[in-house]
Amino acid sequence: MKLKNAYLLIAGLLVISSCKNDDDTIGEVVPPRLLSEVTVEDDAEIVEFLKTHFYNKEEFDAPPEGFDFKIRFDTIAGENSSKQSLFDSPKLITQSITVDSEDFGLDDGEKISLKLYLLIAQQGVGGQPTIGDNSFIQYEGLLLDGNLFDASANQPARFYLGEPGLRVGFAQAVLKLKTGLGPIENGDGTVSYTDFGVAAVFMPSGLAYFNQTVSSIPAYSPLVFKLQALGYEANTDIDGDGIPSILEDLDGDGDLNNDNTDTELEAINGKIPNHFDNDDDGDGILTIDEIELDADGKFVGFLDTDGDGTPDHLDNDL
To answer: Which of UniProt's keywords are assigned here (predicted)?
Structure first.
């Protein structure tokens, strides 16, 4: 399935300045690298990590008292020489995702299949979110060398999985996990969950930031995220137009950001995909007034007043 990496912001060309002496060139424009070239290198780095590291499988198989259900990696060496590698673990699955180089602002016409590696240490017992739902996630983001670049606080972070700025690899990993039971009030203003999904995702830079340098993440860096999928809001309606966001994926390709019914009516710099638009067809009538709702204001179905096969909220010629 093609998932256009429209979530990524377009990075500018890297400029390297030198000030060794007055005769030096002030700056040198370095062209972006080819997606195909970087992808091969990223995959080799990820596979090397997977083959030389293991995780705390025994703790997930028989959780000790007080176990926090966090994945921990260590190197296969010395007293750990007999450990099963991440690469050989039956808990490791892969997914191929196709991206276009133009999604990164490149004009070389490349279309490349990238591989995402997902270690599911524990599957949850709850529901499973869709790309249109808000999810509650505990996470840590690391480089392959183990350096931590981001992490959630003690309470779960809320992510809208259809958000354009959310990394493709991160969102796709969450979609593979079932959530837990909860929330359970702890009596101190915090909540907790039990029996939630736990995973680690290894993604090439083409499913992350690619040619961008973001904070402490260098350009062209493969990333690792450790995830705990705690809960989610089923049928999230992110724009409040009465339609669950997942139903605004009109072409069913798993990308909410390429479905925009009134794109020709919107300003060049103001194009809004349907899941963020409360007037999907741009006819001046709010979408919520062109669909069927129940007495509680919950979505029931679509209307087609003129019987032309196009729902009212997508039909601006009524």
So the answer is: Isomerase, Rotamase
